Amino acid sequence: MDRRPLSAATGDVDAKGRDGVTLQPVPETSRPPHPAPPEPGPTSEAQFGPHRFGAGDAGGGTELQGARLVAADLRGARFTDCDLTGVRIRDGWLVDVSISGHLDNLTVNGVDVTGFVRSELDRRHPERVQFREGRTADDARAMWDTIERLWRDAVERSARLPAEARAEQVDEEWSFEQTLRHLVFITDAWASRTVLDEPMPYHPIGLPQSWYPAADAAALGIDLDAQPDFAEILAVRADRMAVMRRIVDGLTEEDLERRCHRAPAPGYPDEARSVLECIGVVMDEEIEHYRFAVRDLAVLEAR
Question: Which domains does the chain have, with CATH numbers?
């Protein structure tokens, strides 16, 4: 059976070919090699968001496209969800610089460091390798076993922190509680709505991506100003994880190729996606947000 790898869910293609189902992570920080994106120009469109298809109300301004900054003082500058394709830094002074995002063909002082970053992330987070090397419905079930275990441990760690720490945004990233709420939205969008074909599965405390228009979120019944307590977040999160458990437990090889015709939410590209692609997005989000969450938990615990 000719099936696309899971990485195709967000545009990546497994280098091993199309001879089987590949549970392939496509994290923002490191993705498998694939053809480099086009240089920015008048006919190309900037890409935003973890699934890279538009800025929405977040902006996407073009006033700096093609800008040349010479001897500019950029100390302390922050670039959030920016398309930096084709950026060149020459004779720069980079000290205490932190970069996260989709890296491909990243060259530092003439050395392509993409492979090093990917392999180091794999060493620290072997679940990425498990995801990438999966092939079958059984592999999807085993992957979900791993995701459940990782998050169970992370929640137990967070429960030992003061309540205010779970709500704290480390370095302006989502708090632990916000991360769980985002994964509620991801499950609603990419599992309940697409795979299960539920028209309006969104929970009010779910948290869409930062670029998602507030008016669209409200139309889905989502309250962006909600302040649920930790117990409520955990209850809703457990329910959504059970939805994914039911989906993967019932998977057959043929199910993986079934086409899903609902877009995950208004504003997403309106196109058919396979069950494989949809559960692949959920698993990708689970793995990468777990990585971000435990990174920030370590900071909070160290205090």
Answer: 123-302 (1.20.120.450)
